[in-house]
From TrEMBL:
<feature type="transmembrane region" description="Helical">
    <location>
        <begin position="260"/>
        <end position="280"/>
    </location>
</feature>
<dbReference type="GO" id="GO:0016192">
    <property type="term" value="P:vesicle-mediated transport"/>
</dbReference>
<dbReference type="InterPro" id="IPR042855">
    <property type="entry name" value="V_SNARE_CC"/>
</dbReference>
<keyword id="KW-0812">Transmembrane</keyword>
<keyword id="KW-1133">Transmembrane helix</keyword>
<dbReference type="GO" id="GO:0016020">
    <property type="term" value="C:membrane"/>
</dbReference>
<keyword id="KW-0472">Membrane</keyword>
<dbReference type="InterPro" id="IPR010908">
    <property type="entry name" value="Longin_dom"/>
</dbReference>
<keyword id="KW-0813">Transport</keyword>
<dbReference type="InterPro" id="IPR001388">
    <property type="entry name" value="Synaptobrevin-like"/>
</dbReference>
<protein>
    <recommendedName>
        <fullName>V-SNARE coiled-coil homology domain-containing protein</fullName>
    </recommendedName>
</protein>
<dbReference type="InterPro" id="IPR051097">
    <property type="entry name" value="Synaptobrevin-like_transport"/>
</dbReference>
<dbReference type="GO" id="GO:0005737">
    <property type="term" value="C:cytoplasm"/>
</dbReference>
<dbReference type="Pfam" id="PF00957">
    <property type="entry name" value="Synaptobrevin"/>
</dbReference>
<feature type="domain" description="V-SNARE coiled-coil homology">
    <location>
        <begin position="196"/>
        <end position="256"/>
    </location>
</feature>
<dbReference type="GO" id="GO:0015031">
    <property type="term" value="P:protein transport"/>
</dbReference>
<feature type="domain" description="Longin">
    <location>
        <begin position="120"/>
        <end position="181"/>
    </location>
</feature>
Length: 291
């Protein structure tokens, strides 16, 4: 069944590892030793002869003694082998890269490896003390998250048990390590809970969406501002024209009023002259007669 569920966590001790002289180290694969891989920091391990299971935790409880048919669980050895033995074969077939082999030194994981089957995947990596940490998950489970889980498991496991794994008997630490393995498996069961990259990308997309909306709004507002500026210019021109016409109209009205006033004055003068002329003429005639 193809899914994205976390299945099992395992811890192995790699046997047959010797620290090689770094001055004569070479990179690449020795054709005479199957499974020998070039190590980081310019060192190469000797052949890994065995991977001893120290602790295992079946988080999904559906592999040990209950494997499916060989066609669906080929990676894990089919119905007759448990998941621990199947992963052991994977590790021996393609040993993990280790950062250093100085026991007791820094126990950080080297480059992790991913092996896929039709329905599942195994992700595993080893530290400088020869401990190999592995996880089985559904084929759709994010490998990057599985590697983050292994890093945390390695750090927690080595911090709690120190040098004990170097001499521990096979499968003797499952009970003592079950609590930390269960806690870590539960934490990483849902990749969304720990996938900070996905969360960050989601925030980036959200910010991009917000910025796009803001840019669109700015452009829209810019168009509106330009439209308002154009309308303002038109109104200013219209106001200037109106002011000119108002002055001209005022001037015209003033001349019109002045003409009307002069005309009325002239009419009044004429009326007075018509009215007063006969009277003045009679008065003038009477004065002549008296004299």
């Amino acid at each position: 069944m193809t899914d994205s569920r976390l299945r099992c966590a395992l811890v192995y001790r790699l046997e047959g590892i010797n620290k090689p002289p770094t001055s004569t180290a070479t990179f690449g694969i020795d054709d005479d030793d199957v499974g020998v891989r070039a190590l980081e920091m310019g060192t190469v391990s000797s052949a890994i002869t065995d991977a001893v299971i120290l602790a295992k935790f079946d988080y999904a409880k559906d592999y040990e003694l209950s494997g499916g048919s060989a066609s669906t669980t080929e990676l894990y050895g089919g119905r007759d082998k448990g998941f621990a033995e199947a992963v052991q074969q994977v590790i021996l077939g393609d040993p993990p890269t280790m950062p250093s082999l100085a026991g007791g030194g820094e126990a950080n994981l080297g480059a992790c490896k991913v092996v896929n089957s039709e329905a599942h995947k195994v992700v595993y990596g080893a530290n400088g003390d020869g401990l190999c940490f592995a996880v089985i998950a559904g084929s759709q489970y994010t490998s990057r998250i599985a590697i983050l889980m292994l890093i945390e498991l390695e750090e927690t496991f080595t911090k709690k048990f120190g040098v004990m794994p170097s001499t521990a008997a096979p499968n003797s630490m499952s009970n003592s390590a079950s609590s930390i393995m269960k806690t870590i498996c539960k934490k990483y069961d849902d990749p969304a809970n720990v996938d900070k990259t996905k969360e960050l990308l989601g925030k980036v997309e959200e910010v991009k969406g917000t910025m796009a909306d803001n840019i669109a709004m700015i452009l829209e507002n810019t168009d509106k501002v330009e439209d308002l500026a154009e309308k303002s210019t038109v109104l200013t021109d219209q106001a200037t024209e109106f002011q000119k016409k108002s002055k001209q109209l005022k001037k015209n009205m003033w001349w019109k009023d002045m003409k009307m006033t002069l005309l009325v004055g002239l009419v009044v003068c004429l009326l007075l002259l018509v009215i007063l002329w006969p009277i003045l003429s009679k008065v003038g005639s009477s004065d002549k007669d008296d004299s």
